[in-house]
Structures are given as C-alpha cells and as structure tokens.
Amino acid sequence: MQNKRKIPAPFFEIGPKAIMYGDELLALAKAADAASKKYDVRIIFTPQPADIYPIAKATKELLVFAQHIDPLPPGRGLGSVLAESVRAAGAVGAMLNHAEKPLTLNSLKKCIDRAKSADLMTIVCADSIAEARAVAMLGPDIIVAEPTELIGTGKTSDMSYVLESIRAVKEIDPEIQVLQGAGISTGQDVYDVIYAGADATGCTSGILLAKDPFAMLEEMISAVRRAFDDRNGRPD
Amino acid sequence: MQNKRKIPAPFFEIGPKAIMYGDELLALAKAADAASKKYDVRIIFTPQPADIYPIAKATKELLVFAQHIDPLPPGRGLGSVLAESVRAAGAVGAMLNHAEKPLTLNSLKKCIDRAKSADLMTIVCADSIAEARAVAMLGPDIIVAEPTELIGTGKTSDMSYVLESIRAVKEIDPEIQVLQGAGISTGQDVYDVIYAGADATGCTSGILLAKDPFAMLEEMISAVRRAFDDRNGRPD
Amino acid sequence: MQNKRKIPAPFFEIGPKAIMYGDELLALAKAADAASKKYDVRIIFTPQPADIYPIAKATKELLVFAQHIDPLPPGRGLGSVLAESVRAAGAVGAMLNHAEKPLTLNSLKKCIDRAKSADLMTIVCADSIAEARAVAMLGPDIIVAEPTELIGTGKTSDMSYVLESIRAVKEIDPEIQVLQGAGISTGQDVYDVIYAGADATGCTSGILLAKDPFAMLEEMISAVRRAFDDRNGRPD
Amino acid sequence: MQNKRKIPAPFFEIGPKAIMYGDELLALAKAADAASKKYDVRIIFTPQPADIYPIAKATKELLVFAQHIDPLPPGRGLGSVLAESVRAAGAVGAMLNHAEKPLTLNSLKKCIDRAKSADLMTIVCADSIAEARAVAMLGPDIIVAEPTELIGTGKTSDMSYVLESIRAVKEIDPEIQVLQGAGISTGQDVYDVIYAGADATGCTSGILLAKDPFAMLEEMISAVRRAFDDRNGRPD
Questions:
Q1: CA nearest neighbour of C14 among C203, C174, C152
Q2: Is some CB atom of chain B closer than 8 A to the CB atom of A111?
C-alpha cells in the first residue's frame, strides 16, 4: 500500500463494481499486484467495501480505493460507509460520484473534505466537460472524464474528448490528474488512450467479464507501460 | 459464526453504526464474542461493511450482520453493498430499513429476497405498529420494533408498545422474531424489556458511547440472561 | 369535483405522467369530464402539479389527483409538493409510491397520514402481491396492483393476478378498493379486466400516446361501463 | 410576467416554501406584484407548483419561478415536476439545488439544460464559495450564495462572504447574477446587503412568518430600492 496524494503516471484503475467479490476477486487483486510491480504501473483497485480488508492485507503495490464513502463524520449513520472505517481496513482512497452512485453537489464537496481528513485520496467521476470543470472546483485528486453513455459499451471516448477534458481540468488546476475511462475493452484501446496523452485509464467489464480476466489484465497493464514509453521515447 | 434462520431466544443486537471501527471495534467484538459464550446469549453485531471481514475472522459466537445491503444482484452497481460480498466476508445476515438508511417499499422487498438468495438472515426496522405489520408481509426473519423518535434518546419504549408490537407481528407470522430497540441505555432497561416478554433487545449509543463500553456490554448481556431466566423460572 | 372516501364502482384512472400538460391536457381533461358523465364512470385524473388548478376549475365530474405529495407538513420544504397546496388547488386525492416515484416505507406511511389530514384520498401503487398486502396495512383508500415489469408494455396482467391481488387486499381490509393497472392498451383490455371482476382499471400510454387520445378515451370509458353492466347483468 | 434572461438589478426573491399556499399566498403575491411596480424592484416569487397557475394569472410584474424542476424530458416520469408544465402554467424560471432539495451534480447539469430548452431561467443555490464556483461552470442565470447553516436563523452572511462570493462567480462568468440569501429578517438586513454591493437578496421566513407579512414585504422591497439608490448616488 502506498498513499501519495499524487500518483506517478502512468496509472490504471480496475473497478470490480458488484461483479466480482470474495476469493475470486482476491485472486484477481493478487494478479494485479504482480502486474503493477512487473510493469511499473500504479493500479487503483476498487473492491466492494467488505473486500477492502482482505485485499489490502494480501497485496503490496495495489492502491486499494473504496467504491464510495458517505459524507458523514464518525457517529450516527447506520448503513453508511465511513471514510475512517475504509481507511482503517486498508483503503488509501475513495471513488466518488460514479454514474451508478451519483452524489449531490453538496455531498460531493463534503465527501472530498471528509476523505482528506481521513487521509484518503479521491477519484471523482464527471459525465461531461462542464461537469469535469465543476468537479475541479472542489479539489479532488483525480477526475475520471467518462461520458456516461459509453459506460459498459466497449466504445471509447474519441481522442478529441480525451484531450479536451484533460485541458479543461488542467486549466483550472494543473495538479489534478485526469483518468480517461469509459469503453476500454482491449489492450489496444488502452494503448491508444495513453499514447494520445492520457496519464491514466481504467476498465471494468473489459477485464471482469473477459473470458480470461487474468490474461486481459496482463494485456492491459502491459499496454499502459508500452504506450507510455512509446509516447515518451523509451530509451533502449 | 452460525447461520440458523431462527436465532434461539434470548438475543441482543449491538449496532456500532459509524461510531466505532477498526481495531477499537475489533476489540469490542471480541469482548462481545466472549460475553455471548459466557452468558449463552446470541449477539447480532452490525459493523461497518469494511469491518465485517476482520470481525468475522476473529470471532466464533457473534452473528455478524451487515448494516445494509443494496437490492441489486451481482453485476453493475458501483458504490453498492452486494449481498454476496458481505456473505463472502463472513456476515450471516443484514439489517435493513433503519431510520438512518430507509428503503423504498419495493427495494425492501427486493433486499429481503436478495438476502435469502445469498443465505443472509434479515433484521428489518419498523417505525410504528402499522409499519411493523407491513414489514411482516414481506417475510423478514426479525423485525425491530423501534419508534424512531426514541432512537438515541435513552428513553425506552413503554411496555404496552413492546407487547403490542410483538402481538401485531406474531399475529401475521408467528415465525418472525421481534427485537425491541430504541432507548436502551442501562442493564436495567435491558432487564425490563426482556422480563416483560421480549425475546430480544439491542443497543447502540448506550454501549458505544458509555464511559466503559466493555463494562456496559457485560452489564447488558448479563441482564439479558438474568431477565430471561427470571421470566422463565430459572431452575437453581 | 367530488370527494368521497369511497369511489363508487366502476372507476378508471387516466395518468398523463409528464407526457401531456398545459392546454393540450386541459382539452383531454374536459373530454374525460364529459365521458365520465356520459357513461356514469368515475374518472381519476392525475395531472402534473402545475396543471391541477386549471383542470380542477374547468371540470365538474373528474376526480383530480396529484401524482405525488411529500410527507412533510406545512412549513419548510422548498421543492416539495405539499398536501394542503394541491388540495387548495382543487385536487381531491394523491397517488403515491408509483414505480417512477417510489417512497420509503416510512414516508409512505407519513404521506397517507398527511393526505388524510389534508382531506385527500390516496391511491397507492404496489408492485407485487406481497407489496399490496404490506400497503394494505397502512390504510390507503385504493391500491393499484400493477406489476412494474408490465408498465408501458401493452401487456396486461393475467386474470389470475387480477383476482389474487383483489383477494389479498380485501382479506386484510375489505374497504380498500383495488385498481388493476399495467399494460391496458385497448378498450378490449379494459373490458376484460372489469368483466373479470375488477372494480377499476386505468391507462397512461394507451391513451396519451394513441393516435387519437380522445377517441381512445371514449373507447375505454365506454368499455368500463359495458363490462361492468355485462358482469352485473344489466337490465335491458 | 416577464422573461428576460438577465433581470435588471436590484431584485429580490420571496420563497414561500411549503409555508403558505392557496388563497393566502395569492393575496401575498398580489401585494408583491404591487410593491414590485411601486418600488421598481423585480421580484422572483417561488410558490408551490400547484400555486403557479393562479399566481401567474393574477399578477403582472412578478417573476414566478418553480421551486424545483426534475431533469427529465416530456414522457414518463409520474410524480415529477416537468419544466414544460410549469412553463405552460406561467412560470418564467425555476430554482434548483436548494439545501432542502439538493440535486446530484449530473441532475443539476441536466436541469439547467432542460430549463433552457423550456425557456425557463434558473436560479441555483450553492452552499459555499467552492460550490458557487462549481455551479458557475454549469451555466445558470443566477446563483444564490447562501451558507446552509444560516438558513432560517435570522443571522445574515457577513459582508466579506457577500463580496467574496460575488467576486468568485463573476471571475468565472460575469453574466451570472448573484443573489445573497440566508438569514435576512428585517428591512435593515436587506438594506445592508444591497448597499454592500449585492444586486439581489431574498427572504422566506422573515416575511412568511412575520406578524404582518404584508408590512414586512413592503419594508423589505422599499429597503432594496433605497439601498440600491443610496449605493449608486440617487439623483434628487
């Protein structure tokens, strides 16, 4: 586990959602941990809350993030996901405002503040360039620029969207990192997005629903490294 | 861990909400585990989702319940709490519809069905006699009859409410167990409710915010046993 | 406008949802008003909240219902729909808990109580037999037994569902009226449901999205009358 | 009724929430209409949705705004408040994202877009400077800079907050108007905020719960005019 507020590029997010859990997910997490080391690519891994503890204990390189935290401080709040609790279980960050768990503007602000006070990084989803700009005003560490209509489709954002969203966020705050999500389904998709200039991308169904999730994981993480090196003129 | 659909009376629920988590909660869970054995009182323990795994691993007698599950099946649903995931982490049940995490009638029905298919018991909260009757129609294992206006006040339901809510639920389905919650703050409160005829009661702030939570836990669990035996004419 | 707590059978609900509004809806409301008188069939008409006033002013027979009210009493609650406000505008009832506006069990209870105190009838939707039983415990005037998966499909509930849902509700409280919704798209569908024993049915897209909504309205309301008379052996 | 996308300063918002409705509110609306003309101060009036029609019909100067609209387009959406429906009833704008009706970031974006396509102005609430900046990215017409913790307290924002929030919004888009809300309870409060540089302010409980709402309305609207003229050096 690491916990730096700025993750060195390139990095990649694997989002198991509610697709995989328990021992099966633990095995995938261990494979991701090995791939992270092998290819020197940081991997954000976002399991179900009940899977945070065993995965954090069993891995060294993975950046385990909660899928969500609630805006409330320690105290009442039965049924919530408390920032401090996921931190204590081994998470180093939290995803917020995914299209499947949208937050009110006010809760989003509070969640980002709560994450900071619990020493958690934040990766916040935005559905459009305008929303990415709005989110940038709230001080997250990473923004996922992911048009909702592409989620789970296997259709990627086009490169103009990729570049425009990076530019829009960096204009407001150059310290915020931008992850290009939505529709990544092959190693080639990963290569294209990173080579075009993104510092990070990620995948859910492309890996989790692949015939062989382990092979696809390897294919994608190696593609991150290759694209990033090619883009920056890797020394032979 | 046990998983019987009907918990033998008397039993008790400890609900840490978002008050306690991590190592501190683990220590309390171990003390509850010991008290459960010592007094032969079943204890439902409902930690934050990220605390389910370590607590389930470290205890033998506790019935670890999730504070909440979402109605969705395995698949999409980023930010959710999946029934199968908490089951895999060691939970044997889930609480549903607490006043701090209310569910739509339709989601409540789905959650109860989802819990069954993931082999989780359900303990469902109801805010009034009418709501307890409505919940009884949906087939939960246990109903918490807890008038919201008393939660956290240290003021208990009066005995007529206790008896009427038990009767209302049992009339519809005698297999459903009834837990009398709300406002329990001393061992005497516990004694009174169990002695009056309840098979179960529970506590959050009375234990969690006590000067010495461990001592209060012991006081309450021993009171459960004493009241139950006194009520049933304990053989010396 | 009428306001009797029990609407004499047969009756019919027309639900414009957010499909039609303003002058166009007002014209349809007037046609429904005329059909109600012509066929001696009570019609519940549920416009958008901003359309309640003009429709209630322009009609005599229609039972104008709000599509929803919120559980709050007069006071704070910006952005809410207040029971007393829709009552003052001319509504005589409110629909609650439709699949497109689901309520928590606790809010549903409060909304039914609030409606009573504002002298509004309630028509509450239930998605399954179990939910219809649960709703019946909360004291509504009318229950809509409408399996969500059929809404807007043009596929009607089968007759065993119709009869079982009526029986389930009447067993709990024979005073509650049952409206069979979901999937009514022709006058024949209306005839079949009423003839089978329902006292009421209703329609949204079948009328609102018909090529000629006025003609379809006439076809359906006349079918209600015909089926009801045939069922009861109309004197020639 | 007017509908200009930019309301000439100074202006004032009266928010009846769910406090007043029906004939009583209609009388207050008429008084506001007269005060608007008398003092040449534009007044945004935000009634319950069922009160929009009669108030819009009975007034000439008032800018009637809905308290809320939903993000959905015409079609399904039972229980919603449709932009086109409130527009047809006479509203010229909609309030969005009040602390009592918070919107997800994504819905807020959609509601602003929907309002535009239905020819409604938008007045969007923000709870902090950071949130005001975020909202400014979404293209509303007016932003209410209102720290939630002051709502209904009779304690006003201090002047540094007033000026900083105006500056923060104007930096992003000088066309967006800023209304300083929260805690206005006397004519003097109104005078102070406008004199300090705000173009607009507003009030709910200060007027609605006043011993004499009509007198307080007059006091506040006249204070708007006086402060604005004093600030700009009224020619005698």
A1: C203
A2: no
A100: which residues sit within 8 A by CB, 6+ positions away? A17, B76, B77, B78, B79, B80
Give the 3-state secondary structure of residue D140. Answer: coil
**Look-up of token digits 């044997």:** B92
What does the DSSP assignment read for B11-52? EEEE--TBT--HHHHHHHHHHHHHHHHHHT-EEEE---GGGH
User: Taking CB atoms and an 8 Å limit, are A50 and B53 in contact across chains?
Assistant: yes
ipTM: 0.94
- CA-to-CA dists, residue D33 to D37, D56, D95, D218, angstroms: 7, 10, 19, 11
Q: What is the pTM of this model?
A: 0.95
Query: Taking the CA atoms of chain A, what radius of gyration do you get in angstroms?
Result: 16
**Tens of pLDDT, residue by residue, chain D (236 residues):** 333 478 999 999 999 999 999 999 999 999 999 999 999 999 999 999 999 999 999 999 999 999 999 999 999 999 999 999 999 999 999 999 999 999 999 999 999 999 999 999 999 999 999 999 999 999 999 999 877 766 666 666 678 888 899 999 999 999 999 998 867 999 999 999 999 888 999 999 999 999 999 999 999 999 999 999 999 986 55
Q: Which of A102, A133, A137 has its CB closest to that of D106? A: A102
- pLDDT at site C211: 97
Phi, psi of D51 (to 5 degrees): -95, -5
Q: B79 CA to chain A: closest CA distance, Å?
A: 5
Burial class (CB in 10 A: 0-12, 13-18, 19+), C191: buried
Contact check, Cβ <8 Å, A109/D99: no
From A180, A188, A191, A174, select the one nearest A226 (Cα to Cα): A191
Residue with tokens 């609630």: A70
Q: Cβ–Cβ of B22/A54 closer than 8 Å? A: no
